[in-house]
């Protein structure tokens, strides 16, 4: 019996030993797998949170670090730093050693809570405190402190070169509605263009300025949509132009563009938005031309008498060959209508016509179109423009008559400009006649034209057509 128990004990011991050996083997195998998983995780983390194989954290690393902060009582100062107002590094890969060294120097000098290289042009930095009483003055001082601590030279291709910086920054609390790294990034990127333009190379975020720009972009997007896909969103009103001796019978009209939009924005608000967008400006001008031509064609087909219609045009559009081609296409069936369309070129302060623009003026004149100098008297090139044979009319800027507000008022500058314009033997129009004193002042010049709300407000298309039918 004892032998039996001994045999069982030996078997159990053997099984236990085998199980122990197997367990150790499995543990070693599991540990190996766990180590491999850990290495893979670290490698993945490295590739996601760092630039390539470098030790430089990227923007995602920066975001993750800030997201771990207890937001409730925290104050954040975040800066976007441009590494040289003029680009210094063409890429991260080819300048990895230099950028690594720069990153270390910046971290040591400034000691921010979070620091990352956004790309080869930008670095992003954040400071976090529990002092929620920071004001803009303190934040701007922080900006200057950062700028003073940044390295002023770097090694690029074995050459030491100077480096300047531009910094856009903003401060916010963890409870702010602006908290969110995507919101912060958009604002810092917006502010950077002002930092680059400033003498100090710094700019502290202005939320009102940012919101105004976002609103402008929103309106511009809708405006682009209307111009490109819904030209019927635009319509014309017509402001009569009278002889100063007779304000009962209009002799000419100026076509003024209006845009149907939910914000009820007028041309003074939306036209400046497309001044630096020649394609949009050109397309909108074509919409106006087409509507004027269509209206004149209706009147001509009805055997009604036509009167000249003025419209504004940017001198820059005269550089656009497509405008001339469009005009030829529009009047192809009824070329006589061209004689009743006058383009007003805004003189401004620096209107100078290039050889290409003058060539376009010549070709448009040959088609029958007329030209006027708008805002005459404001610029320095008035007399030079008056000598041009392509301008048939002069419209004197309204600023010359605005201060005539009573019966005794005198306007010597207006008198001088009128005299200069009359000597050119061109049609003279004074705009901005808004009250009776201004009208009475202009009556001393019986052979010139006036335009303004005193004589008539702009007329809708129906009012314009009705008035012209009654006059006929």
UniProtKB/TrEMBL annotation:
Domain EAL: 216-472
UniProt superkingdom: Bacteria
Keyword Membrane applies: yes
Xref: InterPro entries: Cyclic-di-GMP_PDE-like (IPR050706), EAL_dom (IPR001633), EAL_sf (IPR035919)
Residue ranges of the TM segments: 6-23
Molecular-function GO term, any one: cyclic-guanylate-specific phosphodiesterase activity
Alphabetic keyword roster: Membrane, Transmembrane, Transmembrane helix
Protein name, entry field: EAL domain-containing protein
Organism: Pseudoalteromonas luteoviolacea CPMOR-1
């Amino acid at each position: 019996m004892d032998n039996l128990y001994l045999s069982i004990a030996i078997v159990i011991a053997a099984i236990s030993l085998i199980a122990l050996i197997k367990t150790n083997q499995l543990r070693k195998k599991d540990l190996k797998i766990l180590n491999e998983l850990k290495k893979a995780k670290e490698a993945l983390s490295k590739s996601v949170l760092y630039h390539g194989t470098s030790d430089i954290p990227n923007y995602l690393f920066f975001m993750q670090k800030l997201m771990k902060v207890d937001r409730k009582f925290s104050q954040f100062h975040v800066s976007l730093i441009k590494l040289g107002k003029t680009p210094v590094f063409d890429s991260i890969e080819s300048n990895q050693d230099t950028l690594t060294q720069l990153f270390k120097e910046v971290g040591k000098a400034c000691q921010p809570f979070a620091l990352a290289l956004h790309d080869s042009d930008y670095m992003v930095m954040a400071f976090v405190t529990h002092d929620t009483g920071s004001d803009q003055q303190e934040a701007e001082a922080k900006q200057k402190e950062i700028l003073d601590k940044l390295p002023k030279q770097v090694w690029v291709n074995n050459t030491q070169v100077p480096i300047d910086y531009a910094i856009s920054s903003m401060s916010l609390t963890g409870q702010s509605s602006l908290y969110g790294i995507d919101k912060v990034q958009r604002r810092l990127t917006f502010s950077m263009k002002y930092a680059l333009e400033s003498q100090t190379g710094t700019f502290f975020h202005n939320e009102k300025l940012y919101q105004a720009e976002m609103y402008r972009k929103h309106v511009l997007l809708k405006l682009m949509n209307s111009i490109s896909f819904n030209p019927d969103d635009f319509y014309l009103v017509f402001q009569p132009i009278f002889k100063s001796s007779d304000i009962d019978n209009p002799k000419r009209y100026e076509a003024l563009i209006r845009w149907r939009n939910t914000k009820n924005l007028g041309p003074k608000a939306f036209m400046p938005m497309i001044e630096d967008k020649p394609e949009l400006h050109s397309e909108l001008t074509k919409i106006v031309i087409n509507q004027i031509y269509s209206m004149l064609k209706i009147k001509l087909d009805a055997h009604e008498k036509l009167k000249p219609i003025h419209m504004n045009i940017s001198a820059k559009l005269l550089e656009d060959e497509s405008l001339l081609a469009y005009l030829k296409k529009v009047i192809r069936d009824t070329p006589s209508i061209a004689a009743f369309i006058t383009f007003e070129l805004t003189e401004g302060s620096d209107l100078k016509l290039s050889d290409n623009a003058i060539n376009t003026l010549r070709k448009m004149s040959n088609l029958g179109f007329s030209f006027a100098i708008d805002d005459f008297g404001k610029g320095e090139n008035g007399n030079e423009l008056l000598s041009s044979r392509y301008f048939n009319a002069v419209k004197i800027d309204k600023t010359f008559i605005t201060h005539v507000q009573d019966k005794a008022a005198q306007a010597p500058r207006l008198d001088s400009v009128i005299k200069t314009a009359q000597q050119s033997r061109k049609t003279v129009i004074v705009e901005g006649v808004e009250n009776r004193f201004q009208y009475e002042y202009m009556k001393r010049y019986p052979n010139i034209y006036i335009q303004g709300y005193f004589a008539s407000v702009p007329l809708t298309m129906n009012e314009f057509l009705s008035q012209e039918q009654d006059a006929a």
